[in-house]
Specification:
The complex is a heterodimer.
Chain A (H helix, E strand, L loop, with lengths): L3 E3 L4 E4 L4 E7 L6 E7 L6 E6 L4 E3 L2 E6 L4 E6 L8 E8 L7 E3 L3 E6 L1
Parallel strand pairs in A: 2-11
Antiparallel strand pairs in A: 1-3, 3-8, 4-5, 4-9, 6-7, 7-8, 9-10, 9-11
Chain B lengths: L4 E3 L2 E4 L5 E6 L6 E7 L5 E8 L2 E4 L8 E4 L6 E5 L8 E8 L8 E2 L3 E5 L1
Parallel strand pairs in B: 2-11
Antiparallel strand pairs in B: 1-3, 3-8, 4-5, 4-9, 5-6, 7-8, 9-10, 9-11
Classes of the chains: A mainly beta, B mainly beta.
């Protein structure tokens, strides 16, 4: 089983749609969670950290369910510029804090 | 305030040659991570280093690959006797501390083995 698994994608949605990405992780000792974004095989960039209470940043909402070892990202009112690959990332102190990436879910927003 | 700098951006090597990839972390960051991304695949962890120490090299092949982060100078990922399967994008990331913090990525080095 992969340490971090994401929806296989790709997701093709029209502008204005709401889209949700799901992610599960296998190590119950994980304690830091992030969503990164990667454009056209460029370097990944942090989109947002994910906190236990859930957090929101504009059109983006991240949720964490520790009991189910599940992380989600919701994008509302999607824009053409949201087209990218979204990477679920998990970090575990007893693994030295290295970031473990999911394989990514590609999003394509169409006009 | 420069971010993570990687060079070269593109590197072409013939089979059997050596590839040396360099990474200068964000100023003040003492933690460096190397990742490899094969075409159509996700980022795979290779090695995690702090100054002069390898903390975790569990993702790095045992042969031909080595990494260092000396007290002075950039971190180096070295691939000896490259093979076609080594062709990939190699990303370096740095962070100021272990876990719970954002890691900043460099633009990557695209290695092509011909």
């Amino acid at each position: 089983r992969k340490e971090v698994e994401q929806d296989p994608g790709p997701f093709n949605v029209p502008e204005g749609a709401t889209v949700a990405f799901n992610c599960t992780y296998s190590n119950s000792a994980s304690q830091s969670f992030f969503w990164y974004r990667q454009d056209c095989r460029k370097e990944p960039k942090l989109l947002m950290s994910v906190y236990s209470s859930g957090n929101e940043d504009g059109r983006f909402t991240a949720q964490l369910n520790r009991a189910s070892q599940y992380i989600s990202l919701l994008i509302r009112d999607s824009k053409l510029s949201d087209s990218a690959t979204y990477l679920c990332v998990v970090s575990t102190i007893n693994q030295g804090g290295k970031l473990i990436f999911g394989q990514g879910t590609e999003l394509s927003v169409k006009p | 305030n420069a971010g993570v700098m990687q060079n070269p951006r593109h590197l072409v090597r013939r089979r059997g040659q050596e590839a040396r990839l360099r990474c200068s972390p964000v100023k003040g960051h003492s933690h460096v991570y190397w990742y490899r991304q094969l075409p159509e695949e996700g980022l795979k962890f290779m090695v995690y280093l702090q100054k002069e120490n390898i903390i975790d090299e569990s993702g790095m092949p045992k042969e031909r690959f080595s990494a260092e982060f000396p007290k002075e100078g950039p971190s180096i990922l070295r691939i000896q006797q490259v093979v076609r399967g080594d062709s990939a994008a190699y990303f370096c990331a740095s962070s100021p501390s272990m876990a719970n913090t954002e890691a900043f990525f460099g633009q990557g080095t695209r290695l092509t083995v011909v």
